[in-house]
Amino acid sequence: MTPKERYMATLKGASRDRIPVTPIFMAWAAHYIGRTYRDFYLDGDVLGEAQLAVTRAFGVDQISAISDPWRESSGYGMEFDYPDQGVGKPKDHIIRTPDDVDKLARLDVDSSPRLVDRVGAIGKMTAEVGATHSVLGWIEGPIAQYADLRGVQQTMMDLIEAPEIYEKAAPILVDNAIAFARAQIAAGADTIGVGDAVASIIGPDLYVKHVLPWQRKLFVRIHEAGALVKLHICGNINGIIAHMASSGADVIDADWMVPLDRTRQVVGPDITLCGNFDPAGVLLGGSAEEVAAAARKCIAEAGERFILMPGCEIPQGTPEENIRAFCPCEGSLINDALKLN
Fold first, then answer.
1. Nearest CA to 307 among 45, 47, 61?
2. b (16+ CB within 10 A) / e for 73-107
3. Element at 92 (helix H, strand E)
4. What is the domain count for the chain?
5. For 33-71, how does the pLDDT look when each residue is reduced to its tens digit (9 = 90+)?
6. Sign (positive/negative) of CA torsion 143, 148, 149, 154?
């Protein structure tokens, strides 16, 4: 099977030859080709080169355009300082008062340099490997995008004291996310990753009331545009994982603090889970043998519809042999566990 066939078969619950492996590479990929993280997230050519390099080197099944959380925010007019290493640092937030929500406008993807850059990177990666590999686009989810523009602390206060501010902004943010997703799908993305990390810290009641309805709308529109949805909420999502299963997402990422056996019981057999050993304590700080043992545990607990990866991004400084230990490439220590036939 090709990697793309393997990935799609997993999501359909169909027969496949092995478990797909789709680690999230960002800064690590940049350093792998001798470039800075800043080069990676500001230059789509570097992003594409780096992602192609790690996809080929480690035999993974999906190539990704994920890079940093600030692309849409730059399209809204936020300004940043961009260090060589680490994500951009906002100079200020643009939703400072409730009246600022009225100033939010429809994003013109074609006139926003950072949005165009991601779309272009997807087009180039699709041209190289789209026939054989899944291509993952990326957008910010509704509460994450609001927090990007408003600030996390003020977002928490709004949800408790003045949720009408967020609810006024949400339809604009979601419509713009749909437009950005559609542009990436047109460029070749077969799956759109939706990062909504702030949802992990607001609690299940607020998630169900203020986030889940907007995620559902967003995911329906992505499906209508012809792509699948991967929902990625970093952190401890034990309290909301059952609700995430009703979002309409095709793939749910589970971070390392979420037990996969319990999660499978909660979400049922028809959701594809992706995860989830500890990217810091195990992948970065452990031995190759410890990585392999953690990956085997994930495979044993996750059930049939499962994609293997660390709980989140490959950390900078991770030894290459530790990545090879769980990937289907030279140096793998788990090829027997990955194979299904």
1. 61
2. bbbbebebeeeeeebbebeebbbeeeeebeebeeb
3. none
4. 1
5. 999 999 999 999 999 999 999 999 999 999 999 999 999
6. positive
| Residue whose entry in the numeric block shows the structure tokens 């035999």 | 59
* Dist. CA 41–CA 65, nearest whole Å: 9
- What's the token pair of residue 61? 């099944």
pTM for the structure as a whole: 0.97
Residue with tokens 């979601």: 174
SS3 303: coil
Angle between helices 260-267 and 288-302 (to 10 degrees): 20
Sheet containing strand 272-277, strands side by side: 62-64, 134-140, 191-195, 228-232, 251-253, 272-277, 306-310
In angstroms, rounded to a whole number, what is the distance separating the alpha carbons of residues 123 and 136?
A: 11
Instruction: Give the domain extent around 121.
Output: 3-338
- The answer to whether 24 and 66 are in contact (CB under 8 A) is yes
Q: What's the gap between Cα 194 and its chain centre?
A: 6
Helix axis angle for 152-161 and 163-187, nearest 10°, is 130
Locate all alpha helices (DSSP H) within the chain, ordered by sequence: 3-12, 27-32, 37-42, 44-58, 71-76, 113-129, 142-150, 152-161, 163-187, 204-206, 212-224, 241-244, 260-267, 288-302, 320-326, 335-338
Using alpha carbons, select from 273, 336, 256 the residue that is nearest to residue 307: 273
pLDDT in tens, 265-316: 999 999 999 999 999 999 999 999 999 999 999 999 999 999 999 999 999 9
Q: What is the rounded CA–CA span in Å between residue 314 and residue 337? A: 21
Query: What CATH number corresponds to the domain at position 158?
Result: 3.20.20.210
Place of tokens 């902004």: 169
How far apart, in whole angstroms, are the C-alpha atoms of residue 41 and residue 118? 9
SS3 (DSSP) at 40: helix
117 within 8 A of 188, measured Cβ to Cβ: no
For residues 323 and 21, the answer to whether their CB atoms sit within 8 Å is no
